[in-house]
Amino acid sequence: MRSFLRVLPVVVGTAVSAAHAQSTITLFGTEYSVVRINYSDAIRVPRIIPSLPLVPFIESEGLQWIGDNKLLLSADDVNDAGGPTNENWIIEATLAEENCVITGIASFRVVLTQLVASTGYDLNPTGVTFNPSTRGLGAGGNVVVAWGDGRLLGFSADPAQQGVQLDFPVGSGCGTVGGIECSLDLTSRNNNLEDVVFAPVGDNGAFFTINQDQPTIERWDAVTGAFVGEFPVGFALPGGTPLFDAKGITYSTNSTRLPAALQRSDGVLIVAFDDGFPGLQAFALDGTLLGTEVLTVDGTAGGIARLDVDGCPEQLHLESLSVDPATGRLFLSNQGSLTLCNYLWVLTPVTHSCGTCAPCAADFNQDGGVDGADVASFFPEWENSGGCADVNQDGGVDGADIEAFFLTWEAGGC
Question: For the segment 212-221, what is each residue's pLDDT rounded down to a tens digit?
């Protein structure tokens, strides 16, 4: 398969920016502790031409949790803001954690980069996700990129195949050609694609996308590319003026670590809004609104942000978000600019503590009894490969842990 992107060797960097603790915030009925990371300080990316100096990673538009304390971040159109480079990037960043607290970005590697071609951007990542399933575009844990003109493209996540474009339709051999003709083309309904997230739902899995022009959340079959349906997003400003500037979307499988209002058997979608009236909305997969959170103190446009922006003149300018269902952590990315406000907020439920699995797996929720609630707590942890689901303590989370759990649960204890 031919790559139509310019490829760098795998580059690993170390962070120079620590996290700054902030006050807590309550969202959807759950209290979170908050830390803020300046990702442009932490990530200095190499250039395609090695002799050129490193430059800060700025204006992140895409964000995706991929497990093991790792995030994908993408930058789009960085030179539009007068930046020092004509390159865009997708970065894999590893977070540092100490005593259950995120303390900064420990390291990173460049996943994709390119130079601006004469006809425009080769890499135009308005959003990024990955497909951990066995079917559809990007299957096998590979990267799927939202192109701003309304296309989804898959790329290998294997460092040995950096920049290699994947087939679409899968098995067609189209990746040997490369380019937009191998994309999942959404332009019949969406030519202002703002973000994308994969969800392991239905027979084939699905991509949920934001159409900023409508504005709607759209659902696409991950295997066939067929349009499945859509529903509107947005909320009203005081006085009734509608706000529709949806920017980021994420999906989480069901987890007891999520706010109770967001727990659904088939998972939840969360959308971020920006442009002076930042907020979050949560939806069931059928479009049912589960909750709205306005992120200005007084609930007005341009008001003081509920997250510490450290004096940023643009206040809060959310572009993307993601969720770790195993811990309930919520990640929010500020777009920032060439020199200011390139922030990543990490919100951790205050009830979260690591290394405190139940001494006896039968009482999985540690409420002092053994009943159906323990089964309900165990399976989300197991589905998300959480450490406490390794009941047989063999270092992995698989079917053997289900068997081990039920042996102790049916016995009523250890």
Answer: 877 889 999 9
